[in-house]
Design a protein that fits this description.
Glucose Permease (Domain IIA), 2 domains, 24 strands, Dup_hybrid_motif, signal
C-alpha cells in the first residue's frame, strides 16, 4: 500500500466517483424551488507520517524520549487508542491544557512543545512557570475545540512578546487561529487555491500558500493528508495602533507556523465522502410565507451594481435562529429601494451580496454583506387575550448543538458544529455584548439547539448603532479555510420547519450555477506529504 494508505485503484475509484457526482449535478438541474444539501470530501489521514514527526520531535529532547513508546500494539484493534501508545502518552500531557484533544481524528498541530514541557518538569521547573515558555511566547489557548471533523484553536501574542520579533504599530495582542479538518466542503469557488509561497517556510511546508482573503491573511497547507489553515484577521493597509495591517501579521503567523508541533489527536475510523442530495420539504403549503429566489437582491444594490449569488444549497439542517415566527429576511440597508413591501412583510428577499466593504468571494466583484438580515414581526397593538409583546425582548436561539466561539470583547457570537458529517460555523451579530457576557455566551460554552442565547438588538459598536434586527451568516471549511457562503436557502428551509409548511417562491427565476465537487483530484485529496510520513460598517 502507498504511504498515503490507499492503493492507486482506490484513488482512481474515488476520482471517478467525484466525476460522476459532478456530472449528475450538471446533467440533472434542480426543478424549480428544490433545495440541496452540500457535498463534502473526507480526507484520509496518514497517521504513520504523524507518528514519524512526533518521534522526531520527542527525540530532540533525549531526557524524555524514553517516556514514549512508538512500538505498535498489534494485538489490539487498529482504532483502539492502545494501538498507538505514544499518542496516548502525548494526549495525557496535552489534555491538561487542551481539553478534549483526544476527540480529534486528525493530528492536532499546535505551538505547544510537549517534549520541552516534560523536560522542564523533570528538571524541577516551578509549576508557576508561564505556559507561554513552551508555546513560542504565545499566550495560553483562548479557545480550543476538537471533534469528529477535526479541531480549531485560537492563540494570541502580546505586543513586544517573542524574541527577535520586529516592532509593530498595532498596540493590541494579535490573535492567531488554526483549523485542521478531515472534512472539506465542495463549493464552487473561483477564488480558491490561490496564493504565494513563503520562502522562509518552504522547507518546513513545501505546499504552503499565503493569501489574503475575506479579511484574513491565511496560510494553507496539507500535512498527513489533512487540510490545515492558519489565519489572522487584518487589513491590507497602513498599520495603525488600533488596526492590524497584514504586513505586521506576517511575522506573527510565521512564528506560529515554525512553532507547530504534533500535540495530540487520536486515530479513528475515517469518514466517508458525503454526496449532495435533494432535501425533503413540508408537504403542506403555507398560505402566507413567500420568498424571492436566492440571488434576487434588490436591483443595483450589489457591489458596483452587480447582481446576487444564486445558491440552492441548504448548508445545514438548522433550527431557525429567531425564537418565534413570523420573521422576515429583508434588507436593512436598502429596504427603501424595495418598492414591493416593507421590512416586516413577506416575501423574503436575499441580501447576501448587498454592497458592503466586506470581502465575500462568493459574490460578483468579491464584496458583499456576508450574511442575511432578519427582523421579527412588529408587535401587534395590545388587546384582550394577547400575550405581552416587547420588541426588545424577541428571543434568539441556538440553531444547533454547538460550541460557542466568542471573546468577552467580541460583538459577534459564533456557534461551531464539529461532527462526522459537518464542520460549519454560524455567526450572530447585533446582540448586546454586555448582555451576552452576563449570560455566559463566551468561548467554550456548549449550547443546545433551540436554547435561548440572547435577544434581537441594535448593537453596532454601541447601543442603537443599527436597526433592531439579527444578522446571521454561515461559514464552511474549505482548503482556503473558513469561507462565507449564502445562508439564504438554509434559512428558508429552517423557517419552513419552524412553521411546518412549505413556502412559495415568487418572482423571476435566477439561473443557478451547478455546484461542482471541488478538490476532487486524487493527488489533491489523498497525496501524503512526501517529505515526512471588525469593521464599523453595518452588517
Amino acid at each position: 500500500m502507498a504511504p498515503g494508505g490507499e492503493t492507486v485503484v482506490r484513488k482512481v475509484f474515488r476520482f471517478v466517483s467525484h466525476l460522476l457526482s459532478l456530472s449528475l449535478l450538471i446533467a440533472s438541474p434542480l426543478a424549480a424551488d428544490e433545495f440541496r444539501s452540500p457535498s463534502l470530501t473526507a480526507l484520509r489521514v496518514d497517521w504513520r507520517a504523524a507518528l514519524d514527526q512526533l518521534r522526531t520531535e520527542i527525540n530532540s529532547r533525549p531526557r524524555v524520549a524514553d517516556d514514549f513508546s512508538f512500538a505498535p500494539r498489534h494485538l489490539v484493534p487498529r482504532y483502539d487508542p492502545r494501538a498507538t501508545p505514544a499518542l496516548v502518552q502525548l494526549n495525557a500531557v496535552s489534555s491538561r491544557f487542551f481539553t478534549g484533544i483526544t476527540r480529534s481524528p486528525v493530528p492536532v498541530l499546535l505551538p505547544f512543545d510537549a517534549a520541552a514541557y516534560l523536560e522542564a518538569q523533570r528538571s524541577g521547573a516551578p509549576a508557576t512557570l508561564a505556559l507561554s515558555r513552551y508555546q513560542a511566547d504565545f499566550n495560553p489557548v483562548d479557545m480550543f475545540d476538537a471533534g469528529p471533523a477535526g479541531y480549531s484553536a485560537t492563540f494570541s501574542l502580546e505586543p513586544g512578546a517573542g524574541d527577535g520579533m520586529p516592532a509593530r504599530v498595532f498596540a493590541r495582542p494579535v490573535e492567531v487561529q488554526i483549523t485542521g479538518s478531515a472534512l472539506i466542503y465542495d463549493i464552487a469557488d473561483p477564488s480558491g487555491g490561490k496564493g504565494e509561497p513563503v520562502k522562509p517556510l518552504a522547507t518546513l511546508y513545501p505546499d504552503l500558500r499565503r493569501f489574503i482573503r475575506e479579511g484574513y491573511v491565511r496560510y494553507a497547507f496539507t500535512r498527513f493528508g489533512v487540510a490545515y489553515v492558519v489565519s489572522i484577521q487584518c487589513l491590507d493597509s497602513v498599520a495603525k495602533p488600533r488596526r492590524l495591517a497584514c504586513k505586521e501579521a506576517y511575522p506573527v503567523a510565521e512564528r506560529f507556523l515554525k512553532a507547530l508541533r504534533v500535540a495530540g489527536g487520536q486515530r479513528m475510523r475515517p469518514s466517508t465522502d458525503i454526496a449532495s442530495n435533494i432535501l425533503d420539504r413540508p408537504a403542506e403549503r403555507s398560505a402566507d410565507f413567500g420568498y424571492r429566489p436566492s440571488g434576487d437582491i434588490i436591483p443595483n444594490t450589489g457591489y458596483r451594481k452587480q447582481g446576487g449569488h444564486p445558491d440552492v444549497m441548504a448548508y445545514a439542517q438548522i433550527r431557525f435562529p429567531l425564537e418565534k415566527a413570523p420573521a422576515f429576511v429583508r434588507s436593512q440597508s436598502y429596504g427603501k429601494r424595495d418598492k414591493n413591501d416593507g421590512p416586516t412583510a413577506y416575501a423574503w428577499r436575499d441580501n447576501f451580496c448587498e454592497s458592503r466593504s466586506f470581502e465575500v468571494g462568493q459574490c460578483d466583484g468579491g464584496y458583499g454583506h456576508q450574511g442575511e438580515d432578519i427582523r421579527a414581526a412588529d408587535c401587534p397593538p395590545p388587546g384582550e387575550g394577547r400575550e405581552p409583546c416587547d420588541p426588545k425582548q424577541r428571543g434568539v436561539v441556538a440553531v444547533r448543538d454547538a460550541i460557542v466561539i466568542r471573546g468577552a470583547k467580541d460583538q459577534a457570537a459564533t456557534l461551531q458544529v464539529n461532527s462526522r458529517t459537518e464542520h460549519i460555523r454560524f455567526r450572530y451579530m447585533h446582540m448586546n455584548p454586555h448582555a451576552m457576557n452576563a449570560d455566559g455566551v463566551l468561548d467554550g460554552r456548549i449550547v443546545t439547539e433551540g436554547e435561548k442565547i440572547g435577544v434581537i438588538s441594535n448593537y453596532l459598536d454601541h447601543p442603537a448603532g443599527t436597526s433592531l434586527h439579527l444578522h446571521f451568516d454561515v461559514q464552511v471549511f474549505t482548503r482556503d479555510g473558513w469561507i462565507w457562503v449564502s445562508p439564504y436557502v438554509t434559512l428558508v428551509s429552517a423557517y419552513e420547519r419552524l412553521i411546518h409548511a412549505r413556502g412559495r417562491e415568487v418572482g423571476p427565476e435566477i439561473a443557478v450555477t451547478a455546484q461542482p465537487v471541488a478538490h476532487a483530484l486524487p493527488d489533491d485529496v489523498i497525496k501524503p506529504d512526501q517529505r515526512e510520513g471588525s469593521s464599523g460598517e453595518d452588517n
